[in-house]
Each structure stands twice: as C-alpha cells, then as structure tokens.
Amino acid sequence: MRYYEIQPSDTATWTGTIEGARQWSLPGVEDCPGCHETWAGSVDYPAVDLTGLEAAHELEDARAAPYADYARLAELVRTRCPPGTQLPPGTSFGPLVGRARGEWGQLTLTDPWTAWARPDALALLEGLRGITPVWPVLHGRQAPVAELHLSLAGGLAVDCIGPTPPACRVCGREDWRLPGDYWLDPEQLPELDIFRIANAPTLIVVSEHIAELGLTGDYRLSELRTSGTAYSQADLSLYRFDA
To answer: Strands 3-8, 44-45: parallel, antiparallel or unpaired by DSSP?
Structure first.
C-alpha cells in the first residue's frame, strides 16, 4: 500500500471558501505549571456532538485557561469521544457554522489539516476506511461540501524526527519542529484510507485508494516513504489535481 501526504495546491483553480466557527472547543492552556507555556493545538472533531454535555456552556467561547480547568473539561468531553481520542488543549468539536461561497472541486483543503468533499466525491469515497462526512451549518444556502472528520492515527518515524526534548509532564506539550525530510512509521500504519498523523496533526495522509481516484480540486499529493524503505528521488511521485 502506498501513502501520500495531501496539501493545498500552490495554484488556485477553484474559488470555494468557507468561513465560520465550531460550537464548542476545549480551552487552551494558560501558563502551564509544568512548562510555563500558553498554547493550543489545531485538532478538530466535527462529528463529535456535545449537545447536553454537563458544562457544555463552558466550551462555547475559545479562550485560554489554567491547566486544571482544561483537564476537568477534557475528562467531561472524553465521555462523548471514541476510546483513545487525543484531546489536546484547544481541540474543537461539532460542524462548522458559517458561510460558504464560490465553486468547489471534488476535494478541497481549506487549510493543510481540513478536507472537504462534494457529494459526487463522497459517492466515489463510499466504502473506504476513515470517511466520515459532516455537513456544515450554513447561513442562507445548502452546503455544497461536507467536511471529512479525520482521526489522529499513525505517526512519523522516530528516527526521522531525531532527538527531541521530553514532552511536558503536565500538559503533554511537545517542542519539536517538522523535519525537512520525514516518513511514516510502518509499525503504526492504521487501517484507514485517510487520517491526520497523530504526532504531526497538521499533516493529512491518504492511501493509494484515494490517490488513484483523481478527484478534482486545488490540492497536490506527494508520496510518503516508510522507514526502512529506500526510495530514490525518481520514485517519489508528485501528483497535482487542480483541473
């Protein structure tokens, strides 16, 4: 099985955009007692519904809060999530509520970690692993695309990340930069056709099953190696589907 990183294209052919916010989000951590950093991640779970959750009103405004408040709220949210779900500070939940405009390709990335699919693309993706469409709540029009709820799974190989400082013992914050050359850990490959990398959640990975569909949209695919696999530069395929 071949795997590809999917990224927004450098050129724009389609004009589709969407603006809005989610109904709920965990607070970021303010002045963590372990690392003294104030921070929030960029993880979204659009399919997680927190309606009726105790203290849901505390999740309606994005903010930074003391670590104890974040930890308390994360434990409440965990009861609505699948086992093992990662819930870093700043994680947001529920469908996007806002406005959409323009013409959309079959597959669109509005940022490197958020993917949208048209109904005709969803028909082609049906039956593939990890495809959970969530329709946004739009003002004044029917949603032209659904957001793909993406699990955090798999991981970059430790030997490409290199030596890193230990994660904060309190909030779990990791302090390392994405290396210029990176590859997947073959021991952690999930049984999914699309996912966000657990230890690098700004990266979306798709399998060859999706890459070979040739869905239209402003994105590009670059093949990812797995550690221990010696690809030459000529072997690294780069596809563009911006027509």
So the answer is: unpaired
Segment (H or E) for 108: strand 107-111
Quick one: pLDDT at residue 227? 66
CA distance linking residue 70 with residue 189, whole number of Å: 30
Which residues of the chain fall short of a pLDDT of 50?
228-243
pLDDT of residue 81: 96
Q: Which residues pair with 21 in a beta bridge?
A: 97
> Where are the extended beta strands (E) located within the chain?
3-8, 17-21, 24-25, 28-29, 44-45, 64-65, 92-93, 97-101, 107-111, 114-117, 133-134, 137-138, 146-148, 152-153, 194-197, 200-207, 219-224, 238-240
Locate the domains of the chain by residue range. Answer: 1-19+103-243, 23-93
pLDDT at 172: 94
Beta strands 137-138 and 133-134 are: unpaired
